[in-house]
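SEVERITY: medium
COMPONENT: batch folding queue
REPORTER: lab tech (J.R.)

DESCRIPTION
The queue accepted two submissions in a row. Attaching both inputs and their returned C-alpha cells so the on-call engineer can compare them side by side.

ATTACHMENT 1
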Amino acid sequence: MLKIGPHQIQPALALAPMAGVTDRTFRHLCRRLGAGLAVSEMVTADTRLWNTAKSRLRLPHADDQAPVSVQIVGTEPAQLAEAAKRNADLGADIIDINMGCPAKKVCSKAAGSALLRDERLVGDILAAVVNAVTVPVTLKIRTGWSAEERNGVAIARIAEASGIEALAVHGRTRACRFKPTVEYDTIRDICRAVRLPVLANGDIVDGPSAQRVLEYTGADGLMIGRAAQGNPWIFREVAHYLATGASPEPPDLAEQQAVLLEHLEGLYSLYGNWSGVRIARKHVGWYLQAQPDGQTVRQQFNRLDNPDSQRQLIRAYFTRVSAQQESDEAA
C-alpha cells in the first residue's frame, strides 16, 4: 500500500498524467479498472490562462474520484504556489508538480524537465508550493536532463528536504524523451537515498515487467502511462499479477466493446459532440491497434464525423469479430 499524506493508495498503481489523454473520462475509467490513483493532465500555473476551455476541463471537478491529484506546471515559485492554492480550494486532494515533461514547448519555457538543470530553483519551487497548501504535494521527475547531467538523486534529496510527500520517477533523461530503453538504476539509487515514497515509471507494460521493476528498484509503487492508452485494463492485470504471480484472463470481446463504448460516451459528454468525435479517433486507434483488422477499422472510424456513426461502426466491428471467433472455435 502506498501512503501519500492521509491518503491510502490501493493498489499502489497510478495513472501517469498525459496531456491530451488523461482527461476526466479516461481517469474515471482507469480508476474503475484498477488504478489506485489517476493524476490529471498538467495545468498551467499561470491562473490568468485558466479561462480557456482546455484549462477549465483540467481543473478539479465535483465528480472527480478522490483522492483528486492535479498536476501543475510552471517556472515561477510564487505563481506555482498560487496555482496550488487555487487548485486546493477547488477540491484537489493532492498537488503534483511537473518536472518530468520532455515536450519541447514546455522545456523551451524552462518548465517541466528543464527545471532539473537548476537545483536551486527546484528547491525554491518545492518549498513555495509545500508552504502554500495544507494538502500533500508530490513531484514527478526524470532521472536528469541528459546522460551527462543525471542528477535524479540530488533532486530527490531536495524534494525530501522540502516536504514533498511522494516522488514519481521516469527512468529516462529529458534528452532520451521516450525512445531508448529505460534505465532503472537511478530509480533504485533514489529509493535508497530517500525515505519518501517513490513510484517507478517507464516501460511498465504488464504484470511481469511490473514485478521486475519493483524488485529491482525497491520502489513503493508504480506509475503507468503510455501502456494504458487503449488498455485501461492494465491496472487490473498488474494488480492481479502482483498479488498472485499469475496473469489474469484478458478482457473478453463483450467487455472490450462495453469499455470502448463507455469511453466514447464519456468523451462526447465531456467535450461535446464536435470535439468528442475528433478526440475519440486517437483513443479508438489505440484500442484497435492489436485487434484483427484494426488498422482498416481505424481508418474508417477516422472518417466519421458524428457520435451515432462512430457507435455503429464499433458495434458492427465487435459483432463481426465475435462471429469470427465463434466460427473459429466451432471449426
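ATTACHMENT 2
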Amino acid sequence: MKTNLFFLLAFALIFMGCESDDTSDIIINDNSVTNNNGGGSNPSNDCINLSGVYTSDLTLDANNCYVVNGPLLMTEGTTLTIPAGMTIKVAPVGVNAYIAILRGATIIADGNAANPIVFTSNAASPASGNWGGVVICGNAPINSTADGSTDTATTEVGGLSYGGNTPNDNSGIIRYVRIEYAGGAIDGNAELNGLSLYAVGSGTTIDYVQAYKGSDDGFEFFGGTVNASHLSVVDAEDDSIDWTEGFMGTLTDIYVKQNAGSDHDSGFEMDGFNTDFSNEGGYVSQPTVTNVTVIGDGDSGRAFRLRAGTAGIFTNIMIDNFGRGVVLEDDQMDYPTSQNVVDGNLSMTDVFFSANVTTAYTGSGLVNPVTQNDVILGNASNATGTDYATWGAGWTIE
C-alpha cells in the first residue's frame, strides 16, 4: 500500500543527487487503486491503475488487469513482483508514465519463453514513444561521481538518485521480458529508453529481454557492473545499445535489427564517460561484449560507434547492412579512445562484415593513428554472431 506521504517522497526524490536535472517536476496522482475502465482502448475491461510512490511491496495478481498511468516508483526496501505471462499496459502519455525501481528496491519480473512478461502501450494503435519504459537505479559505481565517494547522480528524467560503492548490488530479476513502444525525450538531454539501467550491480539478473519499437535507445547502461545476456533490440529509433558513465559489466548474446522504414541511429553507441558532466571517477567504460549480431537497414548508419574514451573487449561479431561498420572517434582529448587500442584495452576479435557493409572501419580525429588491423583482430571466418534463432524463439517479435 502507498502512504499519504507520497508527495513529500516524490519531492525528495526529485532533488536528491549531485548532478542537476533541468527536467520539469513530476506530478504524481494517487489513483493506483481506481477502476476506470483502464483509461485506454479496452473500455469493456475494468483495470486497476498504478502510479505513485510505493513504500511497501507491490505484488501483481495474474487475474487482474493493470494500467500504469503515471510514474510508478518503488522505494528502498520494497519489491515489485510480476507473475510470468502477465501483460502490463501503460497509458500512452510519453515520458509522463514509466516504472522506476529506486536504489535499494527490487523488481522480480521472472517470465519464461512460453510465458514472457510484456510491458506495452495501452493505445488503440500503439507507436514508439507511447510511454517512458522501465528504469532501474542501483548502488553500483559510476564515474560521474568521485571514486569511493558517497555522492550520487540523478537520472535524466525524474531526478532519481543512483550510484554508490556496491559492485554486486542486487536490483532483482528481469528475465523473459518484452518492453514495447517505450522511450522518449523531454529534450536532447532528458531521455528515457526501453530499459534504462542506472548504476545497476552484478547481483541483478538481466537475461532474455527485448526492447521493441522504442523511440530512444533500446538499452542504456549508465555506469554499473551488471552482466546482461540475451538482449534483443528491434527498431530502436535512437541507438540500440548505449553505455556511458564507466559501465564495467558484460554483455553476452546480443541481437540488433533495424528494419527499413523506421528511423535509427547506431547499433551500439559507446561512451567512456558522460561528456555533459566530467569523469570524476577517473576511469572509463570497459565492458566485455561477446556473441553479437547487428543488422542495419541499409543506410549510412554506424554499427559500432566508439567515443568519449570508451574501452571494451569485443569477440564474435557479425555486422550486416550498415553504411559504416566500426567508427572510432577521439572526441575527448583528455581521454582519447584510440589510446585504449594502443594500451590493449579496446579490441574487436573475430568480426565478419557482410558485403552489404559499405565501409568496415573509420577513424575520426585520432590522436593515435590506429588502423583497422590494430582495432579488429582474429579471423572473420571464426565469427558466428549470436544464435538468435534459438534463444529468441517464442517470446520475441520482429
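NOTES FROM REPORTER
Residues 180 and 212 are 5 Å apart (CA to CA).
No errors were logged for either attachment.
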